Amino acid sequence: MDTQPDQGHNFHWLFLPGQRSTTALYDTTIEETQNFAVLPTKGSIVPGWVLIVPKFPTPRMADVPQSMFAELKDLVTRITCKIEAKFGKAYSFEHGGLKGSPVSCGVDQAHLHIAPMGFDLLQAAQAESPGGWKYPVADRIPRADLAESEYWFVSSGDTAAYKEIDCPSSQFFRKIIARETGNSDQWDYRSNDFIDNVAVTIKAVGANG
């Protein structure tokens, strides 16, 4: 595993105790454990959307060491319960790209999305890119044995699915979510930060939520 912080990617500040990348609201740490941090996502098309980010350099959640999975699973379960209590049914998903790949959405660091949806994201993803999906034991977290290459992963909690990617593309799930929520032209987090939704997320999911 590469253990040296890469100053070029958005989350390198998480590896440096006491540091913060910017004063932007979406760089607020909502909750953290020894090895993971919970942040609201820039481009929160819906309120209640967070990222779980390893506090060490790694490109995909599937590459997180097995020794940390209990810690990660407890955190994912706790945050999902908070989100569902406030906003309804939540899905976890990941664009599991390698360093420098467009699959990673311009962020060369693993990050698991958890977001509430008023539609079936798993079904919508399979309809968007038919065929080739595989169904591991239901879990909200991608595991190392799922895919050796780049992948898309999505889970409703009861059902999980992943697909190995031959033709990398950026922000696959964001494009689906934007369309399904009536924001088809606002899928790109770089130009649409949805900062009001970020504020709602921090208030609802944070320590005082």
TrEMBL record:
Residue stretches making up the HIT domain: 27-116
Cross-referenced InterPro entries: HIT-like (IPR011146), HIT-like_sf (IPR036265)
Coiled-coil segments: none
Gene3D superfamilies: HIT-like (3.30.428.10)
GO molecular function, one term: catalytic activity
Superkingdom field: Bacteria
Identification of the protein by name: HIT domain-containing protein
Species whose genome carries this gene: Roseovarius azorensis
